[in-house]
Amino acid sequence: MRLLQTLDGALGGRRAAARLSGVIGADETSGPKSLGFLHAAAASAPIDVPDGVSTVLGAGGGLLAGMKLGHPVLGTIGGASLGRNLPALFRKELRPMAARNLTVTGVAIAGSLLVPAHRTIAFGVGYLLASIVTYYGGWR
Q1: DSSP string, the chain
Q2: 63-86 pLDDT, tens per residue?
Q3: Domain boundaries, the chain
């Protein structure tokens, strides 16, 4: 059980559930009752960098840049990460998590670009390894 908790902390499972809960509006007072498990996960999730307009603008800019470079999906992922995390670097309480998010996304994108024969697998492996290294490195 401790291993599962460590993996959840390293990979951000509860943070992802909290983000999904916010996007679809699943909470205790509204939304489908079948999605109540998302609220429970969101309530126990550690602090994370909030999404906002900058995330959408970053994704749009990343898509345009990625289309010019021949990598629209990676551009969108990178742009969204930059748009979401750059403003958070100026807030002391969010700075460690924003730096971790940018590092993990950057390593995943770099892995995908370095292994063109298996881009998706390289992205996943880069994401996983960077998540674990930054988690055990104290970037929580």
Answers
A1: -HHHHHHHHHHTHHHHHHHHHHHHT--SSSS-GGGHHHHHHHHHPPP-PPP-HHHHHHHHHHHHHHHHHT-HHHHHHHHHHHHHHTGGGGSTTTHHHHHHHHHHHHHHHHHHHH-GGGHHHHHHHHHHHHHHHHHHTT--
A2: 999 999 999 999 999 999 999 999
A3: 2-44, 53-136
